[in-house]
Amino acid sequence: MGIRSNASPISKRDILNYTGLLLVVLMLVSCNYFNKKKGPTGTPIARVYDVYLYPADIKDLVPKNTKHADSVSMVKEYIQQWMEQQVLLHQATNNLDQQQMDLTRQIEDYKNSLVIYAYEKELVREKLDTNVNEAEVEKYYDDNKKDFQLKNDIVKIMYVKVGKKAPGTDKLKALILSDNPKDRDKLAKYCYQYAQNFFLNDNAWLMFDDVLKEIPIQTYNQDMFLQNPGNRFVQMADTGSEYFLSIRGYMIKNSMSPLSFEKENITKIILNKRKMELIDEMKKNLYNQALNHSDTQVY
Asked: What's the whole-model pTM score?
């Protein structure tokens, strides 16, 4: 069956005529007309073929205290969308046969899927063990090392960004390169007082791409930059700020991703696997119970 397109189109002139009733609608809004229960009676707002839109149909459309101009825009847009939808629906119903329009099975399947999903979600909320210990993470990592290949360069850094007029910047290099706990404390105190931005956790792996978003380093080859020993410390400036960067460790893309970098991802994988196992076990148990109680039968 071909798609016909011989339905009488609605002209722009018709649409303008219908939307011209917006003034009536807005008057009704200002008089709290929509707060009263009204059926589809009175003057319609719009019509598409033999379908009408009434003020009661959009009584909750415009929130209270909405500006007049915004109210006009919201109502006008809704009417336009409603008319376009009705035109399309009219065309569809005139071009589909009865079998194609019978959506009962699809609707029932969709409803069943929603009910089952809601039940599974509640089951997971109540029954899923969300505790994942270090041993489980390490075992998964060791058993699936081939899946943990770096797609990007990663780094361990300490980084400080300060304004050019900040005091004591001449001491920042020594502090940021020091491993002395007292110097670390001094650096942290300085950063909280003067820094525009900073990152001092050199045990955490970061994407080098993310670091480059913070520090205006110009490099055409990240791998070569990281492998250059002369780049273990970088100090640079732009028009308003100075940057101090200490690269404490790095790993190049396509190498084995470290466990500490993958821990969060592995935890999610383990929990998702538990969730699927819990749902599968529930399905099997329910089905077996139904079989044992003769609640299922194939004719």
From this structure: 0.63
